[in-house]
Design a protein that fits this description.
about 140 residues; alpha+beta; Glutaredoxin
Length: about 140
């Protein structure tokens, strides 16, 4: 088996946080594998593995602000992890994003700067988020 040397982002191009995360990956000189998860959702097994690798509770990977979450009653604390995973599998819009997988770990990158902790290469220049927040200075260093 070959060692993983790729970066994968589960991406929604309509999401600013997801766009900023993708741009930070590219600012490190990396062209990631981009999975448009709304079009090509992960299998249930892949979803379970992503959540486990992230180290987050299942509920934190659920996009709780999505209207469908309320419609399906998923905010109810009585919902089990299996029920939440089933809902995310059946309705990928309920998967919080972006999720990034590298050889250094798996993260739900909210905020987008969390991707910096798992990138296998340093930033190659300055980076400013879409909202104007400076994240990386001219020397490629994290601002905060």
């Amino acid at each position: 088996m070959q060692a993983m040397s790729t970066v994968t982002i589960y991406h929604n191009p309509r999401c600013g946080t997801s766009r900023n995360t993708l741009a930070l990956i590219r600012n490190a000189g990396i062209e990631p594998s981009v999975v448009l998860y709304l079009e090509t959702p992960p299998t249930r097994e892949q979803l379970v593995a992503l959540i486990a690798a992230s180290g987050l509770p299942v509920r934190e990977v659920l996009r709780s602000k999505e209207a469908l979450c309320a419609e399906l009653g998923l905010a109810d604390p009585a919902c089990t992890d299996a029920q939440l995973i089933d809902a995310m599998f059946m309705h990928p819009v309920l998967i919080n994003r972006p999720i990034v997988v590298t050889e250094l770990g798996t993260r739900l990158c909210r905020p987008s700067e969390l991707v910096l902790d798992i990138l296998p290469a340093p930033q190659q220049g300055p980076f400013t988020k879409e909202d104007g927040e400076v994240v990386i200075d001219a020397q490629g260093r994290r601002v905060r």
